[in-house]
Specification:
The complex is a heterodimer of chains A (313) and B (177).
Chain A (H helix, E strand, L loop, with lengths): L1 H15 L7 H13 L9 H4 L23 H4 L9 H18 L6 H15 L10 E5 L6 E4 L3 E5 H4 L5 H16 L2 H16 L11 H7 L4 H5 L3 H17 L6 H10 L9 H6 L3 H12 L20
Parallel strand pairs in A: 1-3
Antiparallel strand pairs in A: 2-3
Helix pairs in contact in A: 1-2, 5-10, 6-8, 8-12, 8-13, 12-15, 13-15
Chain B lengths: L1 H16 L6 E5 L3 E4 L8 E5 L4 E8 L2 E6 L2 E6 L3 E3 L11 H7 L4 H7 L7 H6 L4 H9 L4 H10 L26
Antiparallel strand pairs in B: 1-4, 1-7, 2-3, 4-5, 5-6
Chain lengths: 313, 177
């Protein structure tokens, strides 16, 4: 962590370009330290900040940097300090999802999409998170993958959907993605990287409806989806998602079953290329889940709901 | 090319559909026991060590019926991985590099003209407001979801959260992904 902070500071200092009266790098480093030691009410050093920077507040609004500095205050302040507000979360999720949908369209099958929304929303109702708007979509690609974005955006690819046998399998997969949203995994990653991201100035294009501030926060296009999360976030989403599905009345064994189906695919199956770049191997996920579950779900009975499972052509 | 992909898709679908009775190889992921029935209260018929090879014969809920050496019995679903590759991702590590590269010729075959998703696609992606609006229009209400669940007799049940396991070291090459 310390190394990360130092790296951050070095990056920032190098960008702040000989700031004389106002040491932006130092200032931000102090603020990050404050964030990390929230319980101690740290005071910004007034001698350093009075001249050009207004008193820093805990709100998302950052102090404007000195004129001519290559830092956009709006981006820099995007929830750098404190948690993201619901509105910010929605903006981030909308931008990521709009970009993802720019790379791959939704399957043109309204019956399928409606079915997945009904199952997904029912599982999401068990998550305890009702402040976001849950939306589910099946993406038109044979690649085997699923994605979640902040604000309640959940995607499953057609390739992954084909690996499912029944509604409980779908509930398990969606439960995993819902868990990413409830545990705010992507927001945590963004928060860690937002300083660098804001200074990086991603190549933003003027696509209709695009949010340039958020785009700068998340990098290029939907690359955040290709970078993936920490493996522990994936293991956590497996544990939490499995429980969500069980709470929804489904058998908890849907997600593990899908992981078994993935584990049984040929190692060189090209449809799993991106999946294995961003997720631990299913064998490792099964093993981790096995440690957590052991006999704890032995008494949980649930339904598979195979009869109404929507099969795609 | 199309035909090959069609056949493999059909094969895949068949394989998945027969999940209750499959004959596939697998590897034991943790030291565990074989039971005479798919239940932890059934008689223990054998012990199987981590790393042992098994033949998976059938699946029932959270249990797999396996043959390990001369013993046959039921083992917890999460104690075994299906497929080749042994423990963890060992032996398939090269798939990461191979499959994410655009020039990988095998990728073209598997997706039969439909390009798969890769990192570059995602990076280059441009915001699509129309698709996002389409997604938004598909959302359902909580009331609709509850009604839908009720139609299949699904009832919300209390299930406690699972504990976070103690950190353990895996020797998998997937660790750093």
């Amino acid at each position: 962590m310390k190394i990360k902070l130092m790296l951050l500071a070095v990056t920032l200092v190098s960008f702040s370009g000989g700031a004389a009266a106002f040491d932006l790098g130092k200032f931000l480093e102090d603020r990050v330290k404050q964030e990390l030691n929230k319980d101690k009410p740290a005071q910004p050093e007034p001698s350093q900040t009075t001249k050009q920077a207004p008193a820093a507040s805990q709100s998302a609004a950052a102090s404007p940097p000195p004129a001519g500095q290559k830092v956009d205050a709006a981006q820099l302040g995007f929830a750098l300090f404190g948690d993201y507000s619901l509105e910010e979360e929605n903006r981030i999720g909308s931008q990521i999802s709009g970009n993802l949908l720019g790379a791959v369209q939704l399957v043109r099958d309204d019956e399928l999409q409606n079915y997945v929304n009904l199952v997904g929303h029912w599982v999401a109702l068990q998550s305890g998170r009702q402040d976001v708007t849950w939306r589910f979509g099946v993406l038109d690609t044979e690649d085997i993958n699923a994605f979640a974005a902040p604000g309640g955006y959940i995607f499953v690819t057609r390739g992954l959907y084909r690996l499912l046998d029944n509604e409980a399998d779908l509930a398990g997969v969606l439960g995993h993605e819902i868990a990413h949203v409830t545990q705010k995994h992507h927001l945590k990653v963004l928060k860690q990287s937002s300083l660098i991201g804001a200074l990086g100035q991603a190549a933003s294009r003027k696509a209709r409806g695009s949010d340039p501030v958020v785009q700068n926060l998340i990098g290029n296009g939907a690359e955040i989806m290709a970078r993936g999360l920490d493996k522990n976030a994936e293991y956590e989403a497996d544990r939490v998602g499995m429980v969500y599905a069980a709470r929804a009345g489904y058998t908890p064994w849907g997600l593990p079953g899908v992981l078994q189906n993935m584990a049984g695919l040929p190692a060189r199956d090209s449809r799993t290329g991106l999946l294995y770049k961003t997720h631990p191997h299913p064998a490792d996920r099964l093993a981790a889940l096995g440690e957590a579950v052991d006999g704890r779900l032995d008494d949980v009975r649930g339904k598979e709901v195979a009869d109404r499972f929507y099969r795609i052509r | 090319m199309m035909k090959t992909s069609l056949i493999s898709t059909v094969a895949l679908v068949l394989c998945v559909a027969s999940a209750t009775a499959w004959a596939a190889s697998g590897t034991v992921l943790r030291n565990d026991k074989l039971y005479s029935q798919p239940s932890a209260s059934a008689r223990v018929t054998a012990s199987v060590p981590k790393g042992a090879s098994v033949e998976i014969l059938a699946r029932q809920g959270g249990w797999l019926r396996v043959k390990a050496g001369n013993s046959t019995g039921w083992i917890r679903l999460l104690s075994v991985r299906a497929g080749a590759g042994g423990l963890g991702g060992v032996g398939v590590g090269d798939v990461v590099g191979a499959a994410t590269t655009r020039s990988d010729p095998t990728r073209v075959v598997a997706v039969a003209g439909l390009r798969g998703l890769n990192e570059e696609d995602l990076k280059q992606a441009q915001f699509n407001a129309d698709e996002l609006a389409r997604l938004d229009a598909l959302k359902v209400t909580a009331a609709q979801a509850r009604s839908f669940a009720g139609q299949s007799g699904l009832v919300a049940v209390r299930v406690p959260a699972l504990p976070k396991p103690k950190p353990e070291q895996s020797s998998s090459p997937w660790e750093n992904n």
